[in-house]
Amino acid sequence: MANLGFIGLGVMGSEMVDRLLAKGHSVTGYNRTRSKAERLIAKGMKFAESPREVAEAADVVLSMVTNGSALKGIAEGPNGFLAGLRAGKILVDISTVGPDLSREIAEKVRALGADMLDAPVSGSVITLQQGNLSVMVGGRAETFEKVKPILLDIGPKVTHVGGNGLALSMKIASNLSLAVQMLAFSEGVLLAEKSGIKREVAVDVLTHSAIASPMIKYRGPFVLQQPEEAWFDVNMMQKDMLLALDLGRQLNVPLPTTAVTNEFLTAARALNWAKLDFAVIFDVLAKLSGIDTGVGR
């Protein structure tokens, strides 16, 4: 069993630590808000007071934070993980950030004699709980082989896609489809509803039809009732859409459906729905269609 560290104990991070503890690994964790770690501490996770302490304690450090500025925040300074890494250690960053930033941090990690992989995941909380999460990995092949057994304890599908930053490019290419699919699904539901079909019936038919991707199957019902806690809120989804649009501009790839869907996320923020699950783009479209869904009240 491995001596692991985990920085960032949000909804997904906590579930990953749960799985790693269940597999018998030793885990030292850090989260800015300690209260979110209490459940894991009770299960045997050791708590560190800083990212640096995690890096000092573990042989392999995993990190998962919300965006690029958060990643820089846990990496840099006297209490950042860079200050705690030593030769031979491995950092596996699971955050979804820009590929260029990830490569920049990887260079700093290697200058210390350690190594870094970017390893974003595809799936949601329910995917992770069901054991169906997939992991994309960028970085040196030999480093990937060392940590592959650990990543397989998080999800059954682990794929090395190339050098540093390329897993993030793959994740961004994947994630843009989540919101685009959700908007197309919302169009179908509302077209059926305004034709006279009950929304519940339309959702049932569409989530059992040929258009029902795994994401639509578990998120489609959110157009009937938002979850108590957002699985992936509007701000997080828009962050990924903006990463995609930026990458598209860099690579001269037009992303028309991404651009249009991103405007619906902006509209959701304007309606004070930023903290709701991004499935709320249905409610934005419903509002434009003359339907008040009552969301946010």
UniProtKB/TrEMBL annotation:
Keywords: NAD, Oxidoreductase. The keyword NAD applies. SUPFAM superfamilies: 6-phosphogluconate dehydrogenase C-terminal domain-like, NAD(P)-binding Rossmann-fold domains. It holds the Pfam family NAD_binding_2. The active site is at residue 171. GO terms for molecular function: NAD binding; NADP binding; oxidoreductase activity. The keyword Plastid does not apply. Residues 4-162 form the 6-phosphogluconate dehydrogenase NADP-binding domain. Gene3D superfamilies: N-(1-d-carboxylethyl)-l-norvaline Dehydrogenase, domain 2, NAD(P)-binding Rossmann-like Domain. InterPro entries: 3-OH-isobutyrate_DH-rel_CS, 6-PGluconate_DH-like_C_sf, 6PGD_dom2, 6PGDH_NADP-bd, HIBADH-like_NADP-bd, HIBADH-related, HIBADH-related_NP60_sf, NAD(P)-bd_dom_sf. PROSITE patterns: 3_HYDROXYISOBUT_DH (PS00895). Residues 169-282 form the 3-hydroxyisobutyrate dehydrogenase-like NAD-binding domain. GO terms for biological process: organic acid catabolic process. PANTHER family: CYTOKINE-LIKE NUCLEAR FACTOR N-PAC, OXIDOREDUCTASE GLYR1-RELATED. This is 3-hydroxyisobutyrate dehydrogenase-like beta-hydroxyacid dehydrogenase. It comes from Tunturiibacter empetritectus.
